[in-house]
Prior knowledge:
This protein has helices at 6-18, 34-42, 54-66, 77-81, 85-94, 122-127, 140-152, 197-209, 227-234, 252-262, 287-294, 298-308, and strands spanning 24-28, 47-49, 70-76, 99-104, 133-136, 157-161, 180-184, 189-193, 215-220, 222-223, 240-247, 269-274. It is of the alpha/beta class. The strands form 2 sheets. Strands 2-1-3-4-6-5-10 form a 7-stranded mixed sheet, with helices on both faces. A 5-stranded mixed sheet has the order 7-9-8-11-12, with helices on both faces. α1 (6-18) runs parallel beside α7, α3 runs parallel beside α5 (85-94) and α8 (197-209) crosses α12.
Amino acid sequence: MNNISQRDAFWDRLYELAALNRDIILVSADMGAPSLDRFRRDLPGQFVNTGIAEQNAVLISAGLALAGKKVFAYAIAPFITLRCLEQIRVELSMMNLPVTIVGVGAGLGYEDSGPTHHLIEDIAVMRSLPNIVINSITDSAMAAAAADLSLTMKHPNYVRLERQVLPLLYGKTSDFSQGLTLLKQGKDGLVLATGCMTHTALEIVQRLEQQGLNLGVADIYRIPVNEEALLRTVATMPKLVTLEEHFLPGGMGSAVCEVLTDRGTTIPVKRLGLPVQKGYCYRYGGRENLRAYYGLDKGSIEKDIKAFFGKA
């Protein structure tokens, strides 16, 4: 599990489940992957390839769901979400159909493919639609667990997968029912991160601890945010930082601030993410280089956190 991508972990687990349940259907608009090839070869009656026609994939998925099937619609993340926004809104959100949208390459994951392949608006867009739950996956163990969880959902579900292979933070017995997990305790404040930035948060917090700043890290992997769990987690924290590889307006940080404001909590919050004023990035040269364009590289994050906590 530690050496496979989130995509392969998710589809490998779904393959095991689909072999026992003929109502599980995979609708793919992707060109292919080893984990998909096995699904198509061994379970041809449960695999539909629409070609590069993501909107049609969502429409077919909605029809199959109306027929009682448990449907998973899959493609590269920006195309199975933003390209299909009207179909997701009308066929899934309005009709509240239990279709799981699965996208690979969240954030700047396709760093080598330019801004058309960067997905830095999806949390804001998808969380604005009624009934849809977003699962922002942190590692391959969580990805495998999301396959099981998706089968229990009675509403539309969006699983956003990281393209790169990342270290494991969780195990097979981890409990993801709360939608967030406190990974590290801290007394000076708390960093709330999502997706791949959870790994970055842990690395930076470890460095800051050596400089005398003791911060905790919490991983938020389900949106809408579990309000009670969030309030319990931040209750004793003097300051909060949110960290995401996503445009700041409407992102995870905004979701956190909405909960705190609505519930009358006045903890100071610093949101770190991609400033929308910078627009789209046409740089190449690796993910950290793209993050540097937005001021979200590790050095900039560390500097911003230190300034927020008065340690600059």
